[in-house]
Amino acid sequence: MAIVAITPRFFQQQSNAAPKASTGQSLCPEHLPYGMPAANQLIERDIYCLSANNETKFADWVAYRLDRQTITGSADQERVWQPDPDLADSETLEPNDYDGAAKALGTDRGHLAPLASFRGEDWQQVNYLSNIVPQAADLNRGAWKNLEDHVRDLVRQHGEVFIITGPSYLEPFGKLPNANERHQIPGGFWKVVMYGEKIESYYFGQDTPGDADFRLGRTQLEEVSAWSGLDLSFLLSRYQEGGVPDSIEQIL
């Protein structure tokens, strides 16, 4: 991984530590949030960027860009979990840390940058554990999956979509039963979707029912900023925020 310079106006208030990055081009930096704890590591890859949090052992956010080519290609993909090769052993979880979590917590290994949205040669990078978070199975296989499907539909319609997603720790959750490293599982997840001149923001708690309509997770960007602890307000200078439904009757 090569060290690269980051455009200053997108990284004000961030750590002075040099980011780790791949040699390929990425369009992530223009859509990264302001502010990053000094202890975090910024990792920039060909298909996504993330802010790795050494305290929680999960990413504070993952940013990525999708287009029609990105989501098109081979569906022959395997979930081969790997520690992030650009993080020290003490800074990331290992595959066996998740052993027993499904039974004890009812969780899956949830992707932040989704596997199904990257069909190119670098798709295996989304299986690095820095991009994985324990996510309630009902959420991962229900509203979260349906939101990812919605994002891919937006890509097909508009050609290009930018996404920032990450965890929220406002609600407590359990611990991985076999993890030796200190960690903290989030109680919820957020996603901000940008396309054309529009922006959509979503939030789901770990207790989201499996049959919940993903559209009921729609919220305002300022709420996501509060839940994530990130300043995302700069996005409103480029995108127009739409309304939020009050009930399922408004979206059916």
Describe this protein's structure:
With 252 residues, this protein is of the alpha+beta class. It has one domain: 3-Layer(aba) Sandwich (Extracellular Endonuclease, Chain A). 13% of the residues lie in helices and 24% in strands. It is built from 4 helices and 12 strands; from the N terminus they run βββββαββααββββαβ. It has helices at residues 101-105, 137-141, 143-158, 221-228, and strands at residues 2-3, 20-21, 41-44, 49-52, 59-67, 107-111, 132-136, 160-168, 188-195, 198-205, 218-219, 240-241. The strands form 2 sheets. Strands 1, 2, 3, 4, 5, 8, 9, 10, 11 and 12 form a 10-stranded mixed beta sheet that branches. A two-stranded antiparallel ribbon has the order 6-7. β3 and β4 form a beta hairpin. The radius of gyration is 17 Å and the shape is globular. Mean pLDDT is 84; it is low at 1-25.
Outline the fold blueprint:
Elements lengths: L1 E2 L16 E2 L19 E4 L4 E4 L6 E9 L33 H5 L1 E5 L20 E5 H5 L1 H16 L1 E9 L19 E8 L2 E8 L12 E2 L1 H8 L11 E2 L11
Parallel strand pairs: 2-3, 10-12
Antiparallel strand pairs: 1-2, 3-4, 4-5, 5-8, 6-7, 8-9, 9-10, 10-11
